Amino acid sequence: MTAVNPFEYVSILVSIILGLGITQLLSSFTDLLYNHRTVRFYWPQLAWVAFILFLHVQDWIITYQLKDRSTWGMLDLFFVLAYPVALFCVAKMLLPTNTHEEGRDMRAFFHSQFRMVSILMLFCIGFSILFNFHYLQVTVLDQLPLFLFFLTMLLMALRPVRSDRVHQLLAIAILLASGAAVLLTREVWVIG
Q1: How far apart are CA 147 and CA 129, in angstroms?
Q2: CA nearest 88: which of 44, 146, 131, 25?
Q3: What's CA 118's distance to the chain center, in Å?
Q4: Side-chain-facing half-sphere of 39: CA atoms under 13 Å
Q5: SS3 category, 191
Q6: What global pTM score does this model have?
């Protein structure tokens, strides 16, 4: 029987939390699909669902870059878990878990939750910047897009915006940024 190395041990817990977030997104979304005749979908919300799903997969793949790390302290474990935990919280806030209690107008639901989504995204982005800097040695300059995203979420958290135009532009921006991230960092998206 082969012993489990420290990375495998840590990655199991990361994978469980990421799996819970993905399950949350998919189960809530399919509940809405099940009731599609009475649900009024809001495309910026769906863009955010796709974006958060993308971030879950991205974190799972990026965590693999730590495979050669031989020792893990408790602080390392908490730090590596902070991002997926924050992502799970965002996933929980994006879609209603009970369409009968939460209503079926996804625009209204999204607007009612977006301030908290913005606050949680501040934690996600902050953890991501620190993780990139400390564990992956990514320079501050290379993380300017993350700092810009942090500033955007900070503004959205401080002054909640109900403008559909602003939410539509932000939705387009996050989808374009996700596509650009995959295209520009293809070497990161490889396991092996």
Answers
A1: 8
A2: 25
A3: 11
A4: 23
A5: coil
A6: 0.93
Tokens of 149: 């995203």
SS3 annotation, 108-163: HHHHHHHHHHHHHHHHHHHHHHHHHHHCCCCCCHHHHHHHHHHHHHHHHHHCCCCC
Token pair, residue 52, equals 């958060």
Q: How far is CA 83 from CA 37, 68, 102, 108, 131, in A?
A: 35, 20, 27, 27, 9
CA triplet 38, 111, 154: central angle to 5 degrees?
155
Could you tell me which of 109, 97, 102 has the C-alpha nearest to residue 48? 109
Q: DSSP assignment of 70-98, as one string?
A: ----HHHHHHHHHHHHHHHHHHHHHS-S-
Q: What is the pLDDT along the chain (192 residues), one digit of tens a residue?
A: 777 888 998 999 999 999 999 999 999 999 999 989 999 999 999 999 999 999 999 999 999 999 999 899 999 999 999 999 999 999 999 999 875 655 689 999 999 999 999 999 999 999 999 999 999 999 999 999 999 999 999 999 999 888 999 999 999 999 999 999 889 888 877 777
